[in-house]
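Let us begin with a simple case.
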Amino acid sequence: MSDIVEKDLLTVSDLKIHFPIYKGLFRKKVGDVKAVDGVSFAIQRGETLGLVGESGCGKSTTGRAVLRLYDPTAGSVVFENRDIAALSDSEMRVTRPRMQMIFQDPQACLNPRMTVGSIVAEPLIEHTKLSSEDRKAKVRELLDAVGLNPDFVNRYPHEFSGGQRQRIGIARALALDPDFIVCDEPIAALDVSIQAQVVNLLEDLQRERGLTFLFISHDLSMVRHIADRVAVMYLGKIVELASVSKLYSNPQHPYTQALLSAVPVADPKIEEKRQRVILKGDVPSPSNPPEGCVFCTRCPIAEKKCFTVPPEWRELKPDQFVACHLA
């Protein structure tokens, strides 16, 4: 058991994030938005876990909760044998440099009034006791590490392209030499030609620095390239978790099958014969999810019990977990 504890850098157990809904003049609580509703997974040291699903399924909320940017409603987030969900603010401040985040929109997450040098140096000022000269040297070293000219330290974010701004965000995330980084759709706002460059940079940095990634995305083809294992999320729950090879070659959950059927294949002959799975209806509201399986209202193979009995999370095959009665 001790070997497993050392191997897993992060273990999330039954994590829930519920946002209260208030109505009326006296702001009476009338319900909850169940953004994340009982999510469990583990990430090993040096691994990249991909977290995929359509918009609004709770991917980004899960990423923020893992870093305690949101306080969990219930559940635990164990980072190196410490439950960070239970830490005080002062204890969390000591742990936070080890866990960082790369945000989706590089334009929105960089202060337009600060120079690039100031942006990258900010965590160093906050969390280290480096001298001014050492800080400047560290900032230049970080910019060089992400493929930017160190002489750009006095420029402002608006002077850079989208891809370059994302590299500045990556340099800032690396400033405190973290062990774990949540990449929240880091390529979604970038041109396709730049996306591959940023993903290759992340892979190079992972090899050089021994980083562990939670890579959140809705781009299944890119996740296949960067991730070791993939978790598929729908309406606040993980419905399937498997290694990349197993998930892409033999998906077990109907939702995973539908997602993968929408990914285009480069071979026209294969593309012509492929069967698309078209889902009917809309995603239910997270404030009023279905009683049984969360996917039952759109599932093409749903049976009577799917609407009333929540499916058990089980290991269907070695290293392939699924929550489906019919898998």
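The second case is a distinct protein. As before, the sequence precedes its structure tokens.
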Amino acid sequence: MNTIGRGVYEVVSAGRSLVVGADVTLERRWERIAPHLPGVLPDGLRAGAGPQTVRLPAGVADGDARRVLNAHLHLLHLSRGTLCVHAVAVQHAGDGRVAVLLGGHGAGKTLAALALVRRGWRVLAADVALVECSSPGGQPRVLGGTAAFLARRGPTRRWFPDLELAAGGPGREDLSLLPGLLEPLPLGLDAGGVSVAAVVDVDGDPAAGAGVVEVLDAHTAATVWWRSSGHLLERLLDDRAVVLRQWEDAAAASHRLERVRELAGVIRLHAVWGAPERIADRIEGLARTGAPAQTTEVN
């Protein structure tokens, strides 16, 4: 087999390079790992040279390999003023508006994104979005994100039966192969400024069916950005006693805090809940106007 880097590789994420030392099995496994790395295209593994930022031990499993790589990508992008945010980012195909949807595991980010896709939006980041804070003009911008678009099978079948997901099978389905759904950004490009950012919560309660919007106070907004931007560090390895969180030293954490406060200061963070279609209604309204017709600030 002709190897790419003969044990030294360059992982390219949103045009930035991470030099990785690994055995040649990384090439064979790259197709499975790459969709879980933010800003990395399928051809984002190249021959590398120079000092290695990270060394993957021989025999490391796919899951641990991507977790280690993601922790180092977090530090790489942070050094350039970009946060790796646990969020789905979508862009309207017509006018280029960008929405960033935050929320914990199971909150319904994917469901809300699917509802927006039905309205002419496309997915730029399926689970982790690269949000550049220190951009010209001060408006946050999305530089891409992860491609693996995992949806919980049960809720997806409930809200989107026309997707015809089988009742059996694994608990989560990767929807990234659906035609026209994912729109990876070519290297060197970004999607433009963020029009709206919202914490979403899909709620099947009929009383919330019309969709409810609240504006988060500055402290709560900063806290949400802080937690979401540390997502790639708050992971456990399956086979090794390594605490990824420790790799972000005090200086890096302080730098991330500055970027988080910058984000919270330049873009209002909303909380939106209801059924997926009603959330999509609200997100579209916020993206058009920058503020909902009626909001309540909460803390």
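The longest strand covers residues 82-92. The two ends are 58 Å apart (CA to CA).
Keep these points in mind for the review questions at the end of the chapter.
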